[in-house]
Automatic annotation (TrEMBL):
It catalyses: AMP + ATP = 2 ADP. Residues 122-159 are annotated as: LID. Monomer. Consists of three domains, a large central CORE domain and two small peripheral domains, NMPbind and LID, which undergo movements during catalysis. The LID domain closes over the site of phosphoryl transfer upon ATP binding. Assembling and dissambling the active center during each catalytic cycle provides an effective means to prevent ATP hydrolysis. ATP binds at G10, A11, G12, K13, G14, T15, R123, T132, Y133, Q201. Catalyzes the reversible transfer of the terminal phosphate group between ATP and AMP. Plays an important role in cellular energy homeostasis and in adenine nucleotide metabolism. It is an enzyme of class 2 (transferase). This is Adenylate kinase. Residues 30-59 are annotated as: NMP. It comes from Thiosulfativibrio zosterae. Pathway: Purine metabolism; AMP biosynthesis via salvage pathway; AMP from ADP: step 1/1. It comes from the Bacteria. Residues 123-158 form the Adenylate kinase active site lid domain.
């Protein structure tokens, strides 16, 4: 199973990915998590990416495409993978198609902008694993600590309200065109499923909607 999770910042891609990767036993490929790991490791790419990310802007297609191509060539991706946060621009989607990657499904998690701002302000993240929580909607067992490691949770630098609004603007301009793009792909190619789910439901209801939709 190879599929793409599409949705605005804060739509719940990472949250659903945690569950879906277990369900299908495939790796999660989150370009955001990979970039945050590069920043933490202090690599030259990480240093460059940090400026874009802190400003809520997209990192260049060239860097991202190289990163994803290398990752999907790894052995654990043989039986499939879940792309979270990639592709995010039309050139990235074109690069994926040109690389001959046959996607089985594109899952759009739809959430209106007003709800997104709420979610970002309450998000807490465990940076090492990419696990995310929400102080109200999905609290950790112990306040401020990751459920699995007990390590500290942090607020992401790009979750400050002014940056969130900029990220939403970037999403509408550069990523939302992929909704039409992949609907057109699915209309032409019966082996590709396009599934839109209502991401304003409770986390477990979104999970069920995705699983049922993929099975249907
Ligand atoms: P990235 O890390 O991909 O961020 P994003 O797409 O903006 O998405 P988020 O991680 O913010 O949200 P999410 O949908 O995963 O939501 P989550 O599950 O955490 O990218 C960060 C940056 O990296 C970009 O801005 C860019 O600079 C760069 N980048 C990354 N990929 C790139 C690419 N391909 N090209 C160029 N640049 C790239 O949920 C959010 C919150 O809501 C959590 O607190 C969660 O607990 C809560 N929540 C989730 N679901 C629900 C629900 N159903 N009900 C209530 N609360 C919920
Ligand atoms: Zn995420």
């Amino acid at each position: 199973m190879k599929f793409i999770l599409l949705g605005a910042p804060g739509a719940g891609k990472g949250t659903q990915a945690q569950f879906l990767t277990k369900q299908f036993d495939i790796p999660q490929i989150s370009t955001g998590d990979m970039l945050r790991a590069a920043i933490k490791a202090g690599t030259p790419m990480g240093k460059m990416a940090k400026e874009f990310m802190d400003a809520g802007k997209l990192v260049t297609d060239e860097i991202i495409i190289g990163l994803v191509k290398d990752r999907i060539a790894e052995p654990d991706c043989k039986n499939g993978f879940l792309l979270d946060g990639f592709p995010r621009t039309v050139p990235q989607a074109d690069a994926l198609a040109e690389a001959g990657v046959a996607i089985d499904a594109v899952v759009e998690i739809a959430v209106p902008d007003t709800e997104i701002v709420n979610r970002m302000s309450g998000r807490r993240a465990h940076l090492a694993s990419g696990r995310t929580y929400h102080v109200v909607y999905n609290p950790p067992k112990v306040e401020g600590k990751d459920d699995e490691t007990g390590e500290d949770l942090v607020q992401r630098d790009d979750d400050k309200p002014d940056v969130v609004l900029g990220r939403l603007e970037v999403y509408h301009k550069q990523t939302a065109p992929l909704i039409d793009y992949y609907q057109a792909v699915a209309a032409k190619d019966a082996s590709v499923k396009y599934l839109k789910v209502d991401g304003t439901q409770k986390i477990d209801q979104v999970e069920t909607a995705i699983l049922d939709g993929l099975k249907a």
